[in-house]
Amino acid sequence: IAFNVVEYELEVVDPFSSAEEASAAVTRVRRRGLCTPWLEELARRPAPPQILVALRPNLNAFRLPPPLPAGAPDRRPVIMVGPGTGVAPFIGFLQQRASELARDPARAAAPLTWLFFGCRSAALDYLFRDELRAKVDAGVLGRLSACFSRDPDACAASGAARYVQDAMLRHQDEIADLMLNRDALLYVCGDAKGMGKDVNEAMATILCGYLASRPDRARELAAQLPPAKGPADAAPLTRDQALQLLTLWASRRRYLRDLWA
Questions:
Q1: What is the rounded distance in angstroms from the CA atom of residue 245 to the CA atom of residue 251?
Q2: Rounded distance between C-alpha atoms, residue 138 and residue 145, angstroms
Q3: Cβ-count burial of 100 within 10 angstroms (0-12 exposed, 13-18 middle, 19+ buried)?
Q4: C-alpha–C-alpha distance, residues 107 and 64, integer Å
């Protein structure tokens, strides 16, 4: 379980003040969320109590693929995008991979795992920093691209991007090659309104850019999609077709998203 403690300020107006007094009656009040501060308080106790958690089925298949019918491990690369607390399921993915490798050393040639993680500050909210670095050192996590949206010093020191979608665009040819030529799986977890939408748009840009110089491959992919409406576009793969391709991958469980508003 991963969470950030929610704290914010509200401007409160005295409901009994007159219209003339309203501007002078504004008071800034600090508020905290209900759930996350409660969890934080429990976590800081010397002997944390047990918390009852209700389990529910994972209906959207947001998990690593099971072994193939012959019992062999799935060798497809895994790309994970999880800024903030969206990294939580991917910690589980990596722990599962570490357990599998420990049980079967012959799986040393495990498929590539690549995590795009983002947070505001490298010093304040880089969740699971030590565990992620340990997974890289152990070879369980093949690549780690960390981003810091409000930490220009950390970005300058490490060459990191600000947002996960920016980091993906920096590696657009590699990501396109993994998705189009190596049947990679793409998982995205986090905020639907901002990050989820931006990552989807970035993927459309990545696909269009990669296929611009590969018209034969673009036509092959376009043949799998519904016929385009309106006048034909001269581009090898239009943006609408790229978005349709992402939808097709989602239906085939190659592009899985666990997003919340």
A1: 10
A2: 16
A3: middle
A4: 16
Q: What is the dihedral angle through the alpha carbons of 153, 91, 81, 228, rounded to the nearest 10 degrees?
A: 180
pTM: 0.88
Q: Tokens for 188? A: 């995205």
Over residues 198-230, the pLDDT tens digits come to 999 999 999 999 999 999 999 999 999 988 665
* Cβ proximity of 14 and 46 under 8 Å: no
CA separation for the pair 238, 170 (Å, rounded): 21
Please give the span between the terminal C-alpha atoms of the chain, in angstroms, as a whole number. 18
The Cα–Cα gap between 11 and 176 comes to 47
Degrees, nearest 5: CA angle 206-240-161: 30
- Chain segment 12-51, per-residue pLDDT in tens: 877 776 666 656 667 888 998 888 999 999 989 999 888 8
| Residue 40 tokens, joined | 């934080």
Residue 114: CB partners within 8 Å, gap ≥ 6?
Answer: 77, 78, 79, 80, 141, 142, 143, 144, 145, 178
- Tell me the three state secondary structure of residue 256: strand
